[in-house]
Write a structure and sequence with these properties.
The chain is an alpha/beta fold. It has one domain (6-144, 223-304): Rossmann fold (3-Layer(aba) Sandwich), CATH 3.40.50. It is 37% helix and 14% strand. It has an eight-stranded mixed beta sheet with strand order 1-2-4-3-5-6-7-8, with helices on both faces. β7 (239-244), α9 (255-266) and β8 form a beta-alpha-beta unit. α4 (116-128) crosses α7. The longest helix is centred in the first third of the chain and has 17 residues, at 87-103.
Length: 306
């Protein structure tokens, strides 16, 4: 049994106070997991995953990132907030990590990022990951140097005054699934999950990234998945990569994710890579989600010693 994801506010380095959810297990807390959600969504969609984690004795914390969910009421949809950039996301992740550490001292702490959240989680681990017991990246973009050209164009548009212009950053991902039932068939083979996303007021076209936001997070993506950047990860940090074979975000047959696994292994880290045949982007909302969640729980169990 768990709480229903109590809502709280996070103290940060500026005037933005992101809303976060906390799910607690009944009984002893064996560890903590911070979940970092993807673009144009929010952590309320992770209740089923949180229930599986809390059932194993893990406390789960997940904030509405700047520009998303209830936090967007302070920053504006798809915006970082006045004077802030992508670095603020990393500081927010650190602040929520510290909340979990204060509430549950002396237990292992894990960081799980999905999609855009995997970009943020990897960059945050490179900067602040010294006390992490594990890093999980779901639906990651992987190694994507081709994005550098897009970042340059987005930065130029932002400098020219278009930073707050909403951007269709997700539209191209559905091309491989056309003719499609919806514009978001690329998320999952489960039509009920796609329909829930479409109906959610905090998802998709209702919560687009702006040009400036995309410039910031894609810039993080390009930089964080390099040999120079991963050198800053803690020695021995265990990493789990979870990807759908047909996820357009991770490249053809998850090629960009496989390249990230290689980069992390070259860094000397213990890496496990799971690529699920025919699965699409949201592996925790896919038709084989029980398999994915089981793999995650087994991997975390090994980090916690059983």
């Amino acid at each position: 049994m768990t709480t229903s994801g109590e809502l709280h506010r996070l103290d940060t380095l500026d005037d933005v106070r992101p809303v976060y959810r906390r799910w607690l297990p009944r009984g002893e807390v064996r560890g903590t997991v911070q979940v970092v959600h993807g673009a144009s969504e929010h952590p309320g969609r992770y209740g089923r995953l949180a229930a599986a984690l809390t059932a194993r004795g893990l406390a789960v914390h997940a904030m509405d990132l700047r520009g998303h969910g209830r936090t967007a009421e302070q920053t504006g949809a798809g915006r970082f907030g006045d004077g802030a950039g992508a670095e603020a996301l990393l500081d927010d992740v650190r602040a929520l990590h510290q909340v979990a550490a204060a509430e549950h001292p002396g237990v292992p702490r894990l960081l799980l990022g999905h999609s855009m959240g995997s970009i943020v989680a990897l960059a945050a681990a490179e900067r602040y990951g010294g006390d992490l017991a594990g890093l999980v990246l779901s639906g990651p973009i992987g190694v994507a140097p081709h994005l550098a050209e897009s970042v340059t164009a987005l930065e130029a548009s932002t400098a020219a005054g278009a930073g707050d212009v909403p951007l269709d950053a997700l539209g191209a991902f559905n091309q491989a699934f056309e003719p499609a039932r919806t514009p978001y068939d690329w998320l999952s083979r489960d039509p009920a999950e796609v329909d829930a996303y479409l109906a959610d007021p905090y998802c998709g076209d209702r919560m687009p990234l702006t040009t400036g936001y995309a410039a910031g997070v894609f810039g993080l993506a390009v930089h964080s998945a390099t040999a120079e950047a991963v050198a800053a990860l803690p020695d021995g940090l265990p990493v789990l990569l979870l990807a759908g074979q047909r996820d357009p975000v991770g490249g053809v047959d998850a090629g960009q994710v496989t390249a990230l696994a290689g980069l992390l292994r070259d860094r000397g880290l213990p890496v496990e890579l799971r690529v699920y045949p025919d699965a699409r982007h949201e592996v925790f909302n896919e038709t084989n989600r029980d398999e994915v969640t089981g793999d995650l729980l087994a991997w975390i169990g090994a980090r916690l010693g059983g």
